[in-house]
Amino acid sequence: MKVVYKPGNAYEEINCFDFREYEHGIVLHNEEGYNIGYVPHEILSHIEPHEGEKLAFEDGQPPEPYGDDDEDDEDDDE
C-alpha cells in the first residue's frame, strides 16, 4: 500500500506492506514486519492500496466506518 502524507508544502509517499494505527499516528511495516516509518495523524493524507490489493465488496461499496452515524446531527444545531 502507499501512505500519502503532507509534512510541509508538498505531498510525500511511502510504500509499505502493512501498518498499525496508534493514538498519535501510524507505524509502517515492510514484508518482514520491520518498522520502516512513522506518520503522525496530523500530516496523514490518505492510504491507497496498490493494484492487486484492492478488495471487492459484495454490494460494491465498503461498509460505513463505525461511529459515523448521521442520526444525531440534528442535535448539533442546538
TrEMBL record:
Annotated region (Disordered), positions in chain: 50-78
Superkingdom to which the source organism belongs: Archaea
Biased composition (Acidic residues): 66-78
Name the record gives this protein: HIRAN domain-containing protein
